[in-house]
Amino acid sequence: MPAEWEPHAATWLAWPRYQEDWPGKFGPIPWVYTEIIRNLARYEPVELIVNDAAAERAVRKLLTRAAADLNNVRFHRWPTNRVWLRDSGCIFLTDPLADNPCRDSRPRLAKPGPASAAAAEPPLAAANFRFNAWAKYPNWRLDDKIGSLMAGTAKAAETRPLHNSTRVVLEGGSIDVNGLGTILTTEECLLSKVQQRNPGMSRKAYERMFGEYLGAPHTIWLGRGIFGDDTHGHVDDLTRFVSPTTVLTMVESNSKDVNHQPLRENLRRLRAARDQNGRPLTIVEIPMPGPVVFEKRRLPASYANFYIANQVVLAPVFNHPHDRTALNTLAELFPARQVIPIYSGDLVWGLGTMHCMTQQQPAV
Predict the structure, then answer these.
(1) pLDDT given for residue 101 in this prediction
(2) Is the CB of residue 244 less than 8 Å from the CB of residue 179?
């Protein structure tokens, strides 16, 4: 699994249609998506999933009004339940058998012919994990089909990761990689019995699976996620790799805030962690935004949910003084990319922002 900052062939998105993800506040959401697509399409193709032909016509009108480059947007008429492709979509992989420390135990994605096994493999692969709406919501069966459709369209060799002959449930937002063999995840999401994705699957089994299917045999386990996260601990609201040796992590200085202790414990774990070569990580801290509350509910607002695309970084902001700190820090970490703030105070009412809605297809 390549790191997110490596070159992309495209970004995959699904157009919002399920209004109950933003109950009572759906109005601005299509315009937020329009702004995101407008910025992405300047630098890489956008593969956009819409429900049907009527939805495509409506979306084209919105994108035209916003001066988005429609020549760089390709539509796919596939019905979905939700829009969070980071979790429901497949995870694209490159060079599945080359220079992989776990290649001898990794399942082959295609039967080799007379030529070498490596020559028989297509340059792009896709790990298509099962999706069950974070083991929480009933509407997921359409979304569980999306990964295969994405893989087929991208001409990627699809594999369905298994544990004890059962297809593994894993969301892309629950992991983050440095592209060299190290993966970040949380105990709360994968090992807790609350919203349990894979009953009976142990810590060691997850680590083997990361090595075999994602080429990431070295796991760094964080503890708990932020309050209000309905995924029960996704790491992409906490800590992200920004280079092979550097992580950006969220911190909360207010000792009375519900996120203070979990984030402090995660920071302690990061300081003790080592990468795949046994080296300590460089850690960059960013303060959490102040509490974002709507209808008396604390929402999972976090600057860590940014998305790295070709030449740009899309960063969620919340009209809080810490927005400036987050944007300046990202600009320092990605000097060759333009950092574009996307106001996400409305978007996060759907309990996700930039990273949750996107899925990158790496260039090969």
Answers:
(1) 42
(2) yes
